Structures are given as C-alpha cells and as structure tokens.
Amino acid sequence: xxxxxxxxxxxxxxxxxxxxxxxxxxxxxxxxxxxxxxxxxxxxxxxxxxxxxxxxxxxxxxxxxxxxxx
Length: 70
Known about the structure:
70 residues
C-alpha cells in the first residue's frame, strides 16, 4: 500500500507502463516517473529545511498539522 500521494502517483504510472505495449506511451510514463522523483526530492529538501528552521511554536504546530514537519 503506497504511503503518500507521490507514492500513489508513482504506482499508477508504473501500472500504466505494465498495462501497455506502446513504446511511445512507455517513454511518456517513464519520463513522468522521473519528473515525479524530482518532485519527491524537492519535497524532502523543503521538509528538511522547515525542520531545521527557527519557527515560532504556533507556525510549527500549523505546519505539523499539514504534514510538512514532524
């Protein structure tokens, strides 16, 4: 079971690749998976930056509720 929206999108793209034999569709879906990996890395960097930032307690609590910090 995927853990995040990014994981769910990646699983759907992977399933789409497996469901078709069209090489052009494979290329487009593989490219989308590569771009999704960039999004994943950017999100991880943003989360790490927020975790290390000097934030007031209220803002940190709101970001925690939204899932941006632990």
